[in-house]
Amino acid sequence: MNDVTAAGRSKTDWEIAQEATLLPIQDIAGKLGIPPESVEPFGHHKAKIAMDFVERRFADGPDGKLILVTSINPTPAGEGKTTTTVGLGDALNRKGKRTAICLREPSLGPCFGMKGGAAGGGYAQVVPMDELNLHFTGDFHAIGVANNLLAALVDNHIYWGNPLDIDERRITWRRCLDMNDRALRSIVSSLGGVSNGFPREDGFDITVASEVMAILCLSTSLQDLERRLSNIIVASTRDRAPVRASDLKAQGAMTATLKDAIKPNLVQTLENNPVFVHGGPFANIAHGCNSVLATRLGLKLADYVVTEAGFGADLGAEKFFDIKCRKAGLSPSLAVVVVTVRALKFHGGVPRKDLGVENVAAVVKGLANLARHLENVRKFGVPAVVAVNHFASDTKPELDATLEGCRRLGTRAVVCRHWAEGGAGAEALADLVIAAIDEGAANFHTLYPDSMKPLQKIETIAFQIYHAGDVVPSKQASDRLAELERFGFGNLPVCIAKTQYSNSADPDAYGAPTGHVLPLREVRLCAGAEFIVAICGDIMTMPGLPRQPSAESIMVDRHGHIVGLS
Fold first, then answer.
1. In 129-258, where does DSSP find H-type helix?
2. Which end of the chain is more exposed for a tag (fewer CB within 10 A), N or C?
3. Per-residue pLDDT reduced to its tens digit, 15-34
4. CATH homologous superfamily of domain 140-257?
């Protein structure tokens, strides 16, 4: 592959994607045995899969092997987890294994902010990358509409006399927007006079943090989607009784807006292999996994399914195991932990600006972070291998130190060059994955039982995964947890919202911190998604844009092509 332009510079992800030869989406579907009549095209290279086909396949035949791709705590630039997921999927297909890849949909907020898109990179990409990163099949817009319809119905109910006796001070349902906009975190709504309703404090979350997003990703059918939407709790009455979406008769219209969004989306890699891209909850705010529907469909159609969970194993993998697998009855066969030399140096104390300079000692020191994540994954009974995602700045001594460190940790590892070489650069990883799965060592289990009290669940994660010394809830959080138990929600799993950059709630605590305090600031109930959100530290459910947002570099050229996406 030629990854250098005539001018001598490296090609951008966009340039590589534009040179790809894409197959008609019906041909990609055919590789998984999906008949043409079950493919609902969005143009030539995107499609949704009809729900009647999805439901028929759920009742048919055994499942393939499920492979989770996770990582160590990332640097702010990310470590290429999606790129590795795509590269491994391509490599397994090159090995003759029928493999489907399952990913989350990109959010516009990170695309225009700092993190960039979510289509992979280099020669391990999902295409069409520009359409995937911007709007795609409209799922996120539908989720935003459903969320904000419910918000409008709450305020409308109060305006027209409030027969449910909703306490305006205890409305918990927030509006959402698929954008990073710190100005909307806390607002006052209904200003402007009597005809506009009753002024109250309100706020926005980013769409990927909406409970509707979590519900879509955990639903197993259209009927299950409507059931979960009806159970959303939006407020309390003055007698502290919960008010649900069903009390406002909202679930039918909300389901109607999501009728097409619930259908899994199919696209392809640069090497023309099938990829389901569906749903996209944030991993540091929500549970960070693609939809149950897409994953289960992939398992029915392929020998291997490669999926990812957002950020490090302390966040994405824990939630994948304790929430998604628990709720969907999934049993992973293997985890691939992605590590980079630069991330090891970052956790070894090297400032971000100096990560391109060789520093073997920092690599060795940073291996403590990798060791922590490998330990975390094994606590769920899932074996793990390590993918060292190669960067051009990596030196041989640094790579040798990384591989030797993995050997000392008792973990098999290989250097992967899928960014530069596509699936061929991940064939050694594919061999490692196939061998590890064939050993049959997986004995998956969740970290805690449903019967454990919510605070004990939070403490179990904090002590066993984060190695915290204490969990300190605010009075507001303690009162809310007690209230949730009284109302019968104590059996739900917990979804901890915290920084992705550390095992702790402190984004500057790199490496493998121990004995720290996990501050439990706020507790939110997602009764429809069926989990409890524990907000720890300063994490925000509506991010802001950086000083120099990526949006400044995105434009449309004279040929109508979107450029500047990364």
1. 129-133, 139-159, 211-218, 222-230, 251-257
2. N
3. 898 899 999 999 999 999 99
4. Domain 2, N(10)-formyltetrahydrofolate synthetase (3.30.1510.10)
